[in-house]
Amino acid sequence: MAIADAAHPGGKWGEISARRPMLRTALRYGVSTAGPVAVSGAHFLASLIFLHALPAREFGLFSFVMVLVSFGMSATASLIVVPITQNIVTGDARTRPTCFKMNWLVCLVFGILLFSALAASGAALLRAAVLGLFGATFAFRWFARNIAYIDGRVGAAITSDILYSAALLGALGALVFTGQMTFAHGSEVLLLAAGLALLPFGGRFFQGQLAALRGGRLRDYLPVFRDMSRWALLGVVLTEITVNAHAYLVTFIAGPGSFALLALGMLLMRPASLVQSSLPDLERPAMARAIAANNLSSLSRIQRHFTYGLAAAWAANMLLCAGLLTFFPMLLLKKGYALHDVEMVAMISAAIMAVRTLRTPLAVMLQAAGQFKALAGVGATSGVFSVAATLALLLAFGPVASLGGIVLGEIVILLRLYPMARTWKRTQREVALV
User: What is the pTM of this model?
Assistant: First the structure.
């Protein structure tokens, strides 16, 4: 009977063999997402603490910081990580020291920009300075995490995520327990957690960074910027305008207090959002290696599994969101928000995340293929639609309605990316046949 099962492709052993790729994929995503899931859970619980302990205006400011920090992560990836990842395709690693030195400048500039944005939105200068330093430190941690993935040091990246999460929740929990939870102390805890999370990358990593800081030449980065990262950065900026136009417009026009309600939707979607931000760091190098090997079947498989992983994260997030709104609504309504408004924000935010689930693997594949100029063009088109619609809806119907502009921008991106990805793959197949 055992021999028959082994010989028959539909037997028991055939079924186990067929499942192995699925099991390997599930294990790969399970291990690689352990850190992001920890950070996502920590940010979710931290946001609930901020929501209940702070006035709406200060909760809105913290939420605005998270939006800007997310942009800093994307900017760091476009300016530094993408060129280093492209070295996998080209086989040229000479730009690494220059990119390492450039990263110090990028993180410094981002910290200054975050400080300026918070000061402009009404935060006290000292608090804005602490949060600006947090933003710079978190951006540097994100860079270190990406380099760890590229170099195969996945354990260091996961340990950093878990240490950050534990430090953040532990310190915030202590503040709540002692009755010391304030905007000032929350800012300091964020900075402390980001600083501690750098430790797992080890002394050798920082020795390399300091050596690059002393010996690298920023002028050597100019060809990299001209040929590649300027288009990647432009794409990130334009995409940021598309996906977060409501955050900037509502915060600067209606104030942080008005943004607080929209921030609840972002809070509810944070688990899926962080997975969408983190998985590209895992899949971009894998896609680049498949492209370098001209293995389009492997590339398509990575893209397909990438989409499945994001869809699973979105579905799990929807279950969490439904459970909270159904059984624990007071966790979100303590500040006096109407349940109907929170539900409306949650539904629109869920639609936004669903579209992002479909378009993110396409965008990451095109990034790995070096299609940065074309992606910037997509961002320009979607940005115009998103900003115009968001501003019109905000002025006409208020903050909640402004989310409709983000939905429109996301749909425009998706509709542009599908034909781009299909055309690029067809061209690669034709080149391979020649």
Answer: 0.75
